[in-house]
Amino acid sequence: MNKRHILGSVIAASALIASSLVSASSATAATGKLGDVLKRGKLIVGTGTGNAPWHFKDASGALVGFDIDIAKMLAKGLFEDETKVEFVTQTSDSRIPNIVADKVDITCQFMTVTPLRAQSVAFTSPYYREGVGLLLAKGGKYKTFAELLKAGSKAKISVLQNVNAADMVHAALPKATVQQYADVPLIYSAIDSKRADAAATDQSSVSWYIAQNPTKYMDSGYGWWPQTYSCAVQQGDQVWLNFVNQVLNEAMSGVEFATYQKSFKKWFGVKLPEPKIGYPR
């Protein structure tokens, strides 16, 4: 072995040792939930399994989606290894109870921030702004939101059955004819069969369906009823909350932006612009 190879091996070994020492030192120095997670060596995340593009199982049975990628970004921030995460699958109703009972370290499960929920858990920095959008069929009667609005009652909009469904649609299209369906797949089949001109659904679902079927569907170009998605942690541990927020903020606008950008493009079909250099907002 020549001197260059020996020197390279020494440098690599020194870097590994230094990294291990820093990790060990961090685990010892950190307190509360952050210290517990570092000492355990993995992050425990509560999430769901049946809602693409957020959290679902792919053809191989692996848990994937934007929420899953967010959790992996947190694991990388903790351990420099995105695989050091354990997922606890849970229903939507279990999101807050599992946090309060300390069954998970954090919940990342397309959770809408509300003042009522904030009385029970601490919400992290938002990682997505959800809303309602309109999915159109390419080659259909209407091609834009403006055309749907102008059509008045002639525009037929499919939507998932809900006590607020008609009000939701009429907030954007006051005169549209609302068709309510019992299951989500039916609102899309209504477009395919031309029974409906557009489907009103989560904007993330609109983006996902278009990304999966770019020659079949298109976006109306209008969204409304905004709501914020955040992860949630137990109240009372500001150090843990600050750490999670730091990881999320750097993912969305700092050193890990490329990872966040790649995930956003994969699940929503949108390439986010690079953060501007200079003023950090």
Q: What letter string, H or E per element, gives the SSE order?
A: HHEEEEHEHEEEHEHEHEHEHH
The CATH superfamily of the largest domain turns out to be: Periplasmic binding protein-like II
Coarse structural class: alpha/beta
What helical percentage do the residues reach? Answer: 40-55%
CATH class of the largest domain: Alpha Beta
Distance between the termini: 51 Å
What is the count of β-strands?
12
Tertiary shape: elongated
Our count of helices gives 10
Task: Just name the CATH architecture of the largest domain.
Answer: 3-Layer(aba) Sandwich
Described by strand count, sense and barrel closure, the largest sheet is:
9 strands, mixed
- The poorly predicted ranges are 3-19
Percentage of residues in DSSP E strands: 15-25%
Estimated radius of gyration? 23 Å
Mean of the pLDDT scores? 91
Pfam families: SBP_bac_3
InterPro entries: Bact_solute-bind_prot3 (IPR051455), Solute-binding_3/MltF_N (IPR001638)
Family: Belongs to the bacterial solute-binding protein 3 family.
Domain Solute-binding protein family 3/N-terminal: 42-271
Describe the protein:
One of its GO terms (cellular component) is extracellular region. Keywords: Signal, Transport. Belongs to the bacterial solute-binding protein 3 family. With about 280 residues, the chain is α/β, with parallel strands linked by helices. The protein is about 40% helix and about 25% strand. The strands form 2 sheets. Strands 1, 5, 6, 7, 8, 9, 10, 11 and 12 form a 9-stranded mixed beta sheet that branches. Helix 3 (about 65-80) packs across helix 9. The longest helix has 27 residues, at about 5-30. The protein is elongated, with a radius of gyration of 23 Å. The chain starts with a helix and ends in a 13-residue tail after the last helix. Residues about 5-20 have low confidence and may be disordered.
